[in-house]
Every structure is written in C-alpha cells, then in structure tokens.
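agent> fetching stored inputs for the adenosine-5'-triphosphate docking request
agent> found them:
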Amino acid sequence: MQHAIRAEGLVKRYGETRALDGVDLVVPQGRLLGVLGPNGAGKTTAVRILATLLRPDEGRATVGGFDVVRQAHQVRSLIGLTGQYAAVDEMLTGVENLVMIGRLLGMSRSDSRRRAAELLERFALSDAGGRATKTYSGGMRRRLDLAASLVGRPQVLFLDEPTTGLDPRSRTELWSVVRGLMADGVSVLLTTQYLEEADQLADDIVVFDHGRVIASGTSDELKATTGAQVLEVRPLRPTDLDLVSQVVADVIGEAPDLTGGRATASVHDPAVVPAIVRRLDDLGVVATELALRKSSLDEVFLALTGHRAEDEPVTEKAATAKEEVPA
Ligand SMILES: Nc1ncnc2c1ncn2[C@@H]1O[C@H](COP(=O)(O)OP(=O)(O)OP(=O)(O)O)[C@@H](O)[C@H]1O
Ligand SMILES: [Mg+2]
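agent> prediction call returned; pasting tokens
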C-alpha cells in the first residue's frame, strides 16, 4: 500500500540536543496522523524535514513516494504547510495574500483570483478578504494561513499546531475545516499539544518525547494505557481525604493520587462513579468536587513515561544542558 508519508530513523541534532532521535512514522493515503507532544518534543523539526525545509542528519523519508532530500522539488509540488507561526503578509489583504501565492505557484491571474475567492468563502473570510490581515483576529489569521497552504490543492498537508492560541470556538471551526479536507481525500500530518485535538481528528496518533516516538496507536489505544477517564474527588473536610482514598481504592482496585488535597485516579469504567458516591454518602463524607473527565495529554504522558510533560526543559539552554540522560 502506498503511504502518503513515510519516515524511517530520522535524526536531527543541534549541538548536544537531539531534536529528533530516530523517528519512524507513516501516514496512509487519505488519513490523518496526529503527532502529539509537549514543547520541545521535536514536532516542528519533524514537520520541517518532511516538508523539505530542513535536512535530516540521518534516516530517510518519502512524501507521495518521493524522497524529501533527493526529490525535494517533486515533494514540494504535492504538499501544503501551515507552520506553527502565522506566515501571512500583514500589510496585504486576505485576497492579496492568496492571489500572491497562486501567482507564485504559476497560476494565471484569473485562476488565482478565483481560487482565492473560493478559499475565503470556505473559511468564512469573504467579508474580511479586502482588509489588511494585520486587522484580523488570531483565529482569522490561522484560517487564512490554512487557506494559503491550500491554494495549490495539496495532496498532503502539514499542520503544525494549527489551533494553539485559538479560543474554543475558533478551534472547533478549524477542526471542521480539517475534517472537510479529509473528506476530500487529503492526507494530513497534524501536530498538537492537545490530546483532545488528536482525539477529535486523528485516525492514528504518535506521541513524541525528547525526539522519539514513545507510543503510537489510535486514541482509544493510547487512553487505554492511562484509563479512558480521570476521576477527581475533593472532600469538604480535608481530614476525610484518607477515607476518600480508601473508598476509591476499594471500588477501582487501585490507590488514587492524593496531591493537592484531592483523590485522582484513572478510571476505565465510568460505572464506578455511582458506587463511589454511594459509599461516600454512607460514610457521611461530603465532596466539594467530584468530577469525571477525559485524560489529558499530561496524564497520558505520565502513564507512558513516568514523568509529567511539564517537567520537560522548555528553553533551549535547559534542553542542551540536560543532554541525553534517559529519564
Ligand atoms: N534551530 C535550532 N537550533 C537549536 N536547537 C533547536 C533548533 N530548532 C529546534 N531546536 C531544539 O530541538 C528540540 C525540538 O524542537 P521542536 O521545535 O522540534 O519542538 P516542538 O515539539 O515543535 O516544540 P513546540 O511544541 O514548543 O513547538 C528543542 O529542544 C529545541 O530547542
Ligand atoms: Mg513546534
């Protein structure tokens, strides 16, 4: 079977930092792969290599069957890229930005204008199309950015953290645009720091940490490593925390985490919640907080690596100083 994207053993070093440390991944034709990982995990580095903007030190990769180093030109004709930071020209209007890209891609003036109008319509930017993009909101810029990467009708699309910094509504809108692209048969590699986003969009997910793939599978498979959901119970009287801990441990068969004055535990079966509520009630324990929520990336991380995503070095300096000592 032909893969839209295939990478084998990708390595990229920056001095002592291994931004990528032997990454393998595949995106089957017409599917969306979610690359999930915290700051500095190597997501952007992988995207830049696959989009021919950066050469790997080791390993190889193909996009649409073409080698990203030796056949970069062919690869570029197939792909679209929406980078992590907005790439539109602030002084130009939405229409001008898109027409310029069409012209750069060798389209005629009228074809470029037609394509621009079509994309602005699709991204609900028709009304704003005549305004300089510096007057756009963050969400509008992200949408225009995505539109810009689609001018050339790419078969393979790279989206690097497309919704970071967007409000929930803009995020949901962008998700539906991405779903529309998938319905058109476009293959997508999307990076994100949000488990929920990967959950919403991705057929398959790979989790990056320190430049390595530390887990891969469907969203359900990944969550099965942590428990699909997280239960949190905070007693009104802090002294009841031990009782809460016992009840939760009894019902789910595992001792909860007790940091922050509340009991937190992964839950595979939501039916345990009423049982816990009844037991607490019998014991006269009042909870001020009782919630069942989806696992966060952080919890998936903790389960996979034994450390929290926040422990990662964020600055370049810290990353370099830390070297490659496995956690
Ligand atoms: N040009 C560069 N020079 C030196 N170090 C770099 C460079 N680009 C990336 N790095 C380092 O490589 C590692 C991976 O960076 P990368 O940008 O790929 O991470 P990321 O997963 O995209 O993170 P974020 O979620 O913050 O965008 C980091 O430790 C980063 O500091
Ligand atoms: Mg990045």
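agent> quick read of the result: The chain has two domains: 3-223, 229-294.
agent> awaiting further instructions
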